[in-house]
Amino acid sequence: MTGTGIARGAPRLSGLHATGGKLGSGAGESVRLALLGVVFRSAGLPQDYAAARFVLFLKKNRFLEPVEKAVEKVGRSFESELNDLYVSPVLAEALLVADPTFAASEKEVRAQIKAQFPRPTDVSDAEMAVAIEEALGTGRKLPCTLVVLDEVQQYIGESTDRAYRVQEVAEAGSKRFGSRILFVGTGQTAITGTPQLQKLQARFKLPVELSDADVDTVVRKIVLAKKPDKEPAVRKLLEECSGEISRHLNGTKLAPRPEDRAVLVPDYPLLPVRRRFMGACHAGRRSHRHEGRAPQPAHQRLRGRAHHRREAARDRRAGRLSLRS
Predict the structure, then answer these.
(1) Fewer CB within a 10 Å sphere, N or C end of the chain?
(2) pTM of the model
(3) Contact predicate 209/225, CB 8 Å
(4) What is the DSSP string of 45-92?
């Protein structure tokens, strides 16, 4: 189904939802909790499992609005009080006012919250599925959901155990929600690049590798994208500075070329000469450091190019062009 077809069928499919976040080394040992943190954040909930479950409880019982208003009435932030979920007297008092039957006193409220919404080191597949349904569901089926987990390779590293956990979570989600949830994992190496990543092929069946052309397209259309109404000003500025630009590294293989004119505006504030110069420097450094190794994957090249173009963008000012090469 095309993107347009999916959008048209969204009401019939209970809606569409997309979320993404880094898995990375900071995810700890629980992939399930890391995944839930990504899902919770996309639904406007706290990333913390206990705090998110508490907010979902308030929503389910229609206590959320009165509790939020009661907290704000005393000059506190509801989000800040959630950081002190087990000890906040403001939250306890607000909940007791909203639901006098919850407990007999504020002290008992805090004890009940701690008992009912603990902070586990991990959760089961069933608990993870229920939490996803409650966070994203609207009383109907789960919307068609795309979950992008970045830095999967960095998280797994050389750990067979972590590779198994990622596979287990993807399998559990697919079994529970079927085609309504799609997991995408990204990394700097192809899925066949390491023995540990190869273990994920059964669950991540559609490999997508970026070519050099893909890298340039992503950088130009996403990182360096410009508002249409600003392009004439950029083009005018480049034309005013064309004499200086044409003299950059003149007489070398990196000098300005006629075909550069087509990418001057899309690449701004990075000039084509500077892009070729940095590419040559990185190629020389890679060949020196990685002699005998496999070529650098496109995912990593994308990160490198995006980084240097962001650095170039720091020099950008209205009416000012950075001409350093």
Answers:
(1) N
(2) 0.66
(3) no
(4) --SSHHHHHHHHHHHHTT-HHHHHHHHHHTT--HHHHHTTTTT-HHHH
